[in-house]
Amino acid sequence: MPSVWRATSWLIAASCVVVVALAWRTSPLIHASPSQSTTTPQGDEKQARAMCGVCHPFPQPDILPRHAWRDEFIRMMFIRQNRLPPIGPPSTVNRTIQLPPDMEQVLAFYTSRAPEHFPALESWPDPSESPVQFARHSLTMPDMPNTPAVSNIHLVDVDGDGQLDVLGTDMRQGLVFTGHPEKPGSALSIVASIPHPSHVTLTDLDNDGIPDLLVADLGTFFPEDHDKGAVIWLRGLGHGKFSAFWLDGWPRVADVEAADFNGDGKNDLAVAAFGHRKTGQIAILENRTTNVSQPVFTTHTIDRRTGGIHVIPVDLNHDGKMDFVALLAQEHETVLAYINKGDFTFERKVIYAAPHPNWGSSGIQLVDLDGDGDLDVLLTHGDTFDDGIVKPYHGIQWLENTGGYPFVEHTLAQMPGVLRAQAVDLDGDGDLDIVACGLLAGGSDVDEKTIPALVWLEQTKRGVFVRHTIEMGFPRHATLDVGDINADGAIDIVVGNFSIDKPMTAWVDVWINQRKR
């Protein structure tokens, strides 16, 4: 059935202030006392594989420290029983929760083999040692709470004046915003109020020559299964005005991108609906619009799995038909190519499958990283929001395209909490380097002062990268973008700030490249 859009109109104007107070809530469940395991201390590997290797690759005991496995099993128990877990610090709310006997037996297998502690994290160099230095300034959002949660940011020319603007979303305050990154201390402007936007894309959906915005809306701040998400088309009318069309009734939508998938000259929509445990899908919305005042799109579900983070349209096999690449997180932890076979059918190819379900996939970029003429994948995996544990295996990967599937994996750097990376020539030597930022959930027992928040990897020869730090300590950035903000020939950086445990007055940090030209 065609999708029904509802329409409203917006100007670039001020928005009402909504104060969001975040606090742990306790569960109304009545808990029994901890059970006594009847298994041997070592547990049974066969039983563990039968229980833990059905929905995803079998997780080895060393992917978590010993003390974390009970909390992980309790989380899995609630998923298994189709119940919501209590919200709060696991050390508090899980203390008296009882596991079923079969799970207690498998838990013994894991705790008897898991490491007491993770190995020490790799140290990063001091920012002063970087061969490229940066000058930092910030952008603010007046009259809003000092609790930004900037979920997506771009450097694009929004207003058509030839200069790069900041375009972003805040998923806590519910805002789409723009700003002028070249002006230190300048205020951001609100474009639209959306419940909980995760992503925004500048595009021209209706091909009328006026820029539009596509917004992916999660529907709620905290993860849950529901149909409160939305795909929102802010149709540009010129002079800062937008007419907003909403496609409601979706799970948590993480990404939406425009491309023509059937060659009819109209832009369709690729949608990554992350969902949660039961809801979620990858879909193409076929554009059947004949009157732009009444958009009509028909949904083609391509993949019914949850966890979609990114969808990137691209003609992978150069046959003239638009394919796309998607990143699935949750228990899937995989990068996939969807090859267009016509009539909105796609052949699925695995580009990369992570070794275990705790990989923490967080973002991808398609880029020819090694300069051999084909597209590779730059993958980040550093999501800590399931358990708050800082993991030494989180980091940045290069998935090298060697002409077939899967791609060849190369680990470029370990970086706990890394959520986003972009390849760009930062030092001006003609090859691509990498800029990356991180966000930690907070509450871990690791000294966050020693963990980098913003880094760059210098490509010194093909496929070889040297680590440099731009900002050290307390990673609080979920998103970044790169571009020449001041038109001086050097690439600059913008990062969005995400408040976890303390107020932040700056919503966006701008890092101006000081490289001598």
Characterize the main sheet.
Answer: 5 strands, antiparallel
Structural class given helices, strands, pairing?
mainly beta
Query: Can you tell me the residue ranges where pLDDT is under 50 for at least 5 consecutive residues?
Result: 9-39
Shape: globular
Please summarize what this structure is.
The protein has 517 residues and is mostly beta strands. It has four helices and 30 strands.
Write up this protein:
- With 517 residues, the protein is mainly beta.
- It has a domain at 45-113.
- Helix content is 7%, strand content 40%.
- The protein contains 4 helices and 30 strands.
- The strands form 7 sheets. Strands 1-15-14-13-12 form a 5-stranded antiparallel beta sheet, with no helix packed on it. It has a 5-stranded antiparallel beta sheet with strand order 2-11-10-9-8, with no helix packed on it.
- Strand 22 and strand 23 (408-414) form a beta hairpin.
- It is globular, with a radius of gyration of 23 Å.
